[in-house]
């Protein structure tokens, strides 16, 4: 039951993000942008580029 709740919340989050991207007419993130954000998060949130 908890699994279904987590899946439901994840699904709603994904739908909300898609709607936000569509409403802003913003291009989706590229793989490089995603990699950069993930690496920054793993490094403690430092978003400075080298």
TrEMBL record:
Keyword annotations: Membrane, Transmembrane, Transmembrane helix
Domain of life: Bacteria
Residue intervals passing through the bilayer: 6-23
Descriptive protein name: CcmD family protein
Species for this entry: Paenibacillus silagei
């Amino acid at each position: 039951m908890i699994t279904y709740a987590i899946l439901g919340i994840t699904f709603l989050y994904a739908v909300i993000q898609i709607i936000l991207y569509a409403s802003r007419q913003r291009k989706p993130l590229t793989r490089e942008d995603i990699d950069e954000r993930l690496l920054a998060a793993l490094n403690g949130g430092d978003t400075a580029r080298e």
